[in-house]
Design goal:
The structure is a single chain. The chain is of the alpha+beta class. It has one domain. 20% of the residues lie in helices and 28% in strands. The protein has four helices and eight strands. Strands 1, 2, 3, 4, 5, 6, 7 and 8 form an eight-stranded mixed beta sheet that branches. A hairpin with a 7-residue loop joins β7 and β8. The chain is globular.
C-alpha cells in the first residue's frame, strides 16, 4: 500500500510537492492518464475564486459558515505525464468529469473499464468559471507493467478519503447540525 501525506493537506506546496500523492492541476496544459473511477468528495472552501482556500472535506453534521461553500469534485489516481511520469491523486471539478463522461459516450473514444485506454490533455485557462477543456489522445496504449504494478500498490481513493475524514472529524463541534449530502452510490461517470 502507498502512503500519503495528510498533515498539510490543502496547502499548495504540499499538494504539488513530489513527496505528496496529491497533484494540483496547473494553469496551462497537462497530459494525464486517468487510472481509476472518480470518487465523489465534497470539499469545503472559504472565500471567492481566485482567492478561495480549501478547508477540507465536508463531514457529516458539519455546519457551513458564512463565506464558506461546498463544491462536489471527483478524486482519481492518474499518471501525470512529464519529464518523469508520476502517479498522483487529482481533484477533478465536475466540469472536467462531465467532459470525460462525454468522451466515454462518444463511439470513437469510449472504453469499458478503467484505466482509460488513452491519455488526455487538460487545458486550464486559470480564469474562473468553466476554465477547463480536454483533448483526448488519438492513440490507445496499455499501461506498462511498471505502471500497472504501481497502480496496484496504491491505496484506493475510498480509503484515502475515509482517513482524511477521520483525521478531520476531531475539528467539528458536536452542536453543529447540517445534513451531509448523501451520494446515491453511482459512479460519477
Amino acid at each position: 500500500m502507498s502512503t500519503f501525506n495528510l498533515d498539510n493537506w490543502g496547502d499548495d506546496e504540499v499538494v504539488t510537492s513530489k513527496e505528496s500523492d496529491f497533484f494540483k492541476l496547473p494553469v496551462g496544459d497537462v497530459k494525464v492518464r486517468i487510472l481509476t473511477d472518480f470518487h465523489e468528495v465534497k470539499n469545503v472552501w472559504e472565500g471567492e475564486y481566485p482567492n478561495s482556500k480549501p478547508l477540507g472535506l465536508l463531514q457529516k453534521g458539519q455546519k457551513i459558515k458564512d463565506g464558506q461553500s461546498v463544491k462536489t469534485a471527483g478524486w482519481a489516481w492518474v499518471i501525470v505525464r512529464g519529464d518523469v511520469d508520476q502517479m498522483k491523486i487529482v481533484t477533478f471539478p465536475i466540469s472536467i468529469i462531465a467532459k470525460v463522461a462525454n468522451l466515454k459516450k462518444d463511439d470513437e473514444y469510449t472504453w469499458d473499464e478503467m484505466p482509460m485506454p488513452y491519455d488526455i490533455t487538460i487545458h486550464n485557462t486559470g480564469e474562473g468559471g468553466d476554465r477547463y477543456s480536454i483533448t483526448p489522445s488519438r492513440t490507445n496504449a496499455s499501461l506498462t507493467e511498471f505502471e500497472q504494478k504501481q497502480l496496484e500498490e496504491k491505496t484506493p481513493i475510498e480509503e484515502i478519503v475515509q482517513k482524511i475524514m477521520d483525521k478531520q472529524s476531531g475539528k467539528i463541534e458536536e452542536s453543529q447540525e447540517l445534513e451531509y449530502p448523501e451520494s446515491n452510490g453511482d459512479p460519477l461517470i
